[in-house]
Amino acid sequence: MMKEAANAPVLEEKKVKVWTGPQIALALIILFISLTCLLPFVNVAATSLSTKSAILGGKVSFWPVGWDVTAYKAIFSDPTMMRSLGFTIVITLVYTLFSMVLTILMAYPLTKKRLKGRKFFNFMALFTMYFSGGTIPIYLNIKELGLLDTPWSLILPGMLSTYNMIILKSFFTALPGELEEAATIDGANDFQILLQIYLPLSMASLATLTLFYAVGKWNSFQDALYYIQTKAYQPLQLKLYHLIKGSQAVDIAAMEGGSSTVATEISESIQPASIIFATLPILVVYPFVQRYFVAGVTIGAVKG
Predict the structure, then answer these.
(1) Any idea where the domains of the chain sit in the sequence?
(2) What are phi and psi of 220, to 5 degrees?
(3) CATH architecture type of domain 71-290
(4) Could you tell me the pTM of the whole model?
(5) By the 8 A CB rule, do 207 and 103 touch?
(6) How do residues 132-147 score in pLDDT, each as one tens digit?
(7) 245-254 burial: b if 16+ Cβ within 10 Å, else e
(8) Contact 185/179 with Cβ under 8 angstroms?
(9) 33, 114, 243, 253: least buried by Cβ within 10 Å?
């Protein structure tokens, strides 16, 4: 019996994770930062679904008061709104694609010490980060190129971000040099090394920069405000800009007694509703890109 008891398997007790003081403090800090980012958006969403009287009375916090969807009906009933949404999606996709191609084609050669004039090109790229021609020279340049009031005026200017290029260049430089040496011995040229080695190992960095370019173009409206006159070429942000200005005009007209009842009721909720309408597409895309942020960025690298 003693031998059987000695040979009996010992049941391991389940280890209960004990949170230490620094871990609790870190969790509370992360929770506070998360709420700081999330609660304003929740407040905007609640305001967009509340009645004007509740908004003006300061009764709306993080839950709608009155549940009024008139502002959203006004947005979706505008026949030009969905067209602006589709046009913005196309512009964002084309701009992001061109920008990523240019960023890759500039960052990769600048990592090669054998490139003649590499220091000069690096200096010229950095120079643009500190000095700019200004709004008027850029406008005149676009006018002389015949890009005014065309979709290309929303794509070509600012298509390459020096900051994003430096990030990608630093990432390329950090990759093991032995990978390129091995590929060169096997007879691969620079384009093959870029497409088959560098880019597959840089998915996390590429996904991040793609999101930077896409969000930046999606949220921009000043370029369209300066260069676009045709309503068919107005992106969503510019459309919402005019819509918000229109709601302000409604408030002024209401004070003077010359506004309709419906327009007066939605004048306070149209701005938060517009923000939600313009933000949701990016929020929907973000989870699909987020997984690349934590993916292994050195899969297939040299084993030490």
Answers:
(1) 20-68, 71-290
(2) -80, 145
(3) Orthogonal Bundle (1.10)
(4) 0.74
(5) no
(6) 777 888 888 888 888 8
(7) eebeebeeeb
(8) no
(9) 114
| Tokens representing residue 128 in the block | 């643009």
- CA 199 from centre of chain: 21
Token look-up 């009996």 returns 8
pLDDT tens digits, 103-121: 999 998 888 888 888 888 8
The residue whose two tokens read 């939605």 is 266
The CA distance from 20 to 22, in Å, is 6
DSSP at 60: -
What's 187-238 look like in SS3?
CCCHHHHHHHHHCHHHHHHHHHHHHHHHHHHHHCCHHHHHHCCCHHHCCHHH
The token duo for 142 is 């676009």
Q: Is 3 exposed, middle or buried (0-12, 13-18, 19+ CB in 10 A)?
A: exposed
Residue with tokens 């107005």: 234
Q: What angle do CA 132, 237, 272 make, to 5 degrees?
A: 125
- List, for residues 228-238, the tens digit of each pLDDT value: 888 888 888 88
The distance of Cα 128 from the centroid of its chain, to the nearest Å, equals 22
Tens digits of residue pLDDT in 62-119? 888 878 787 787 777 777 778 888 888 999 999 999 999 999 999 988 888 888 888 8
Closest Cα to residue 235, out of 297, 296, 162, 151? 151
